[in-house]
Amino acid sequence: MPTQLVNFLQGGKTAVLATLDQQGLPHTALFSWVVAKDSKHVRLAIGKGSTTLKNIRSNGKLTISVQGPGMAYGVKGKAKVIKDTIKSSPMPCVLVELVVEQVKDDNAPGITITTGIGYKWDQNPEQMAKVESDVFEELRS
Questions:
Q1: Cα dist. 128→44, 90, 91, 134 in Å?
Q2: CA atoms lying within 13 Å on the CB side of residue 71
Q3: Potential cystine with 35: which of 25, 58, 97, 139 (Cβ 3.0-4.6 Å)?
């Protein structure tokens, strides 16, 4: 992944994940607990009961679509669970690592992406900021 994307994916940014279900159809989901460990590895906290996790366990195929100021990328690769529990998460999550196989620059000529998908916690924002900080640190380690 380019340095710009690695630096962007250090926590608190959203990404759309696409997995393949058992019928071979795309399944998309919006995630915010996403951290680039380095240019070849992306780590994610994924809910234990989610369809996304079921699909990753089934075939390991994962694409991440990321948009932010001045960038739009698709990141493809093989994903697998590397830790069965994320201790810092209040929800039951596993740690999934994507080994990057391909990065596609989705920027269009003559168009500049000005923003990505933002989010905020509606309840307990200070508490959730601490939780997120801990989760991001666990994803990086």
A1: 17, 10, 12, 10
A2: 20
A3: 139
Distance in angstroms between the alpha carbons of the first and the last residue of the chain: 19
Domain count, the chain: 1
Taking the chain (141 residues) in consecutive chunks of 10 residues, what is each chunk's mean pLDDT? 97 97 97 98 98 98 97 98 97 98 96 93 93 96 92
Domain ranges, residue 65: 3-140
Residue 27's CATH number:
2.30.110.10
